[in-house]
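Worked problem 6 (solution included).
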Amino acid sequence: MDVDGKVAIVTGAGAGIGAALAQELVSRGARVVLGDLSPKVEEVAATLNEAAGDSAPVAVAHVGDVCAEAVIDDLVRLADDTFGALQLYFANAGIIGAPGLDVSESDWDTSIDVNLRAHIRAAKKLVPRWVEAGEGYFVSTASAAGLLTQIGSATYTVTKHAAVGFAEWLNITYGDAGVRASCLCPMGVETDLLYAGRETGDPLGVAATNAVLSAGEVLTPQHVATIVLDAVADERCLILPHASVLEMMRQKTSDHERWLGGMRRYQASLLNDSR
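Solution. The predicted structure is:
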């Protein structure tokens, strides 16, 4: 899909990949609604409008919990009323979750809501209208952890696997009806989320951050956003900013038991280094 002249929503747009996606969309001629729980999203929208220098806005912001159905409704309404019919939705908001197995039911619910149900709720609202229009694009931000696994956080691993599965299902089920679905699965990206594990002080959390930092190059959000929009232009489903993830997937599927053993050894070395 050519995003020039299109209308998009980006969640988690107050910083990191979300803010970079909004910037890249605007640079390619799109008009964007930015959603985030943080008021910083208003600053991002203001910066985009100032840079554009147009009399009419190229970006508007909405502060709210983007995994709530009412807020998703507000975002879609804002897009339709400000810019016209919405064609792209970037379900980008995410959280890392607490490390280990001793995670409360409430924490599990929050991770599932943010990392998965937010995607489902947005798709339920948008896909039927896109099928009717014959065109639409849903882009979800998952993680390489959704294809491999995440040392440290079970909630992150499980919900990101589910997000990948949902994106694949959307692509298969509605691709022939004009609705495209892509899934972003990066490793290390220079965002606050990358260092969240260290902030917990938990050995598994520290190991989680160190695992990502040692696994490959840490990319800038801007670099990732460029890769994502190039993939949207080509209508590719699986978006891998780190090419090494594809080889890691092949190693996992070619000899699963060996891969699991290697991951256990890797985790042990990281835990030893974090002590």
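Discussion: Residues 7-274 form a domain with the Rossmann fold fold (CATH 3.40.50.720).
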